[in-house]
Write a structure and sequence with these properties.
It is a single chain. It contains nine helices and 13 strands. The chain is of the alpha/beta class and about 280 residues long. It has two domains: about 180 residues, Rossmann fold; about 90 residues, UDP-galactose 4-epimerase, domain 1. Strand 1, helix 1 and strand 2 form a beta-alpha-beta unit.
């Protein structure tokens, strides 16, 4: 049994991590901030990762063997304080007690201008505010906790409950949203259950540094949307395409990640979307 502390435990990934860790026999504590936690499955503790002293005090009291840091803010005035500085606070506190740290990063730390895939050796070059915050978080984590694993992942999707990206797709496909899906913006979507299993497997492995943990299938936003719509028995013909290159806001277009290092390291299968949907009986 391993003692694990999960930040952002009430988030979409955090809830799956808590459940899988408990089923795996681990002792689990998790933090929450804006979302009320469920009454079961873990020891739930309120935490504002922006508060360095609070983070230090909590980890000193808990003294977990492993910290999995998933808490983040995607935009707004708390983007840098939570996503970047908060990650640094967690990293310093984890290092102070000698805990292993697994930090969640993102594929949008890259500018998306290359052809092919990004490897762990490629340097961050963000073009969005969120990407810049995640890149800064990586730098702070690495400086404070050199033994940390910095996991770069992609679009996270799931079904129980549905994730925000998939719900957005369904809203577009059914006409509830007038938005379009980009045909020239590529990601490697990963099933939330696969990602959680990979993170828990990393708890016991002697790996440090950046690691790409994403799905095996490179898909445009449009192609991903069509697969998700079919998986929910929604006609994808209602999805309209658009070009990210025509967007007035610069976006990273090709964020495809090379996850071959993770596939060699892990027993967990990092399945592509089509394989997941076939396994779940949702591919029509």
């Amino acid at each position: 049994m391993t003692s694990i502390f999960i930040t952002g435990g009430t988030g979409y990934l955090g809830r799956v991590l808590v459940r899988q860790a408990r089923l795996g026999g681990h002792h689990v504590a998790a933090s929450y901030y804006t979302q009320a936690p469920p009454s079961t499955e873990a020891i739930w503790l309120p935490l504002d990762v922006r508060d360095e002293l609070a983070v230090e005090d909590l980890l000193e009291r808990l003294r977990p063997e492993v910290v999995i840091h998933t808490a983040y803010q995607q935009g707004g005035p708390d983007l840098l304080p939570v996503t970047a500085m908060g990650a640094g606070n967690v990293a310093r506190a984890a290092a102070a007690i000698g805990a292993r740290l697994i930090h969640l990063s993102s594929d949008v730390i890259f500018d998306g201008e290359r052809e092919g895939v990004y490897t762990e050796d490629d340097l961050p070059s963000p073009v969005s505010a969120y990407g810049a915050a995640k890149a800064q978080a990586e730098a702070l984590v690495t400086a404070a906790h050199p033994g940390a694993v910095v996991v770069r992942t992609s679009l996270i999707y799931g079904f129980a409950p549905i994730d925000r990206s998939s719900q957005f797709v369904l809203d577009v496909a059914t006409g509830r949203s007038p938005e379009r899906l980009f045909t020239d913006e590529f990601r490697c979507p990963i099933y939330v259950e696969d990602l959680a299993a990979a993170l828990l497997e990393l708890c016991a492995l002697p790996y440090s540094g950046p690691l790409h943990v994403a799905g095996a299938e490179v898909l445009s936003r449009y192609a991903f949307g069509a697969l998700i719509a079919r998986a929910w028995n929604v006609d994808p013909s209602g999805i309209r395409g658009a070009l990210s290159a025509d967007s007035p806001v610069r976006r990273p277009r090709n964020c495809a990640l090379d996850s071959s290092r993770a596939r060699q390291l892990l027993e967990t299968r990092l399945r592509g979307v089509s394989e997941v949907l076939r396994d779940l009986g949702r591919l029509t």
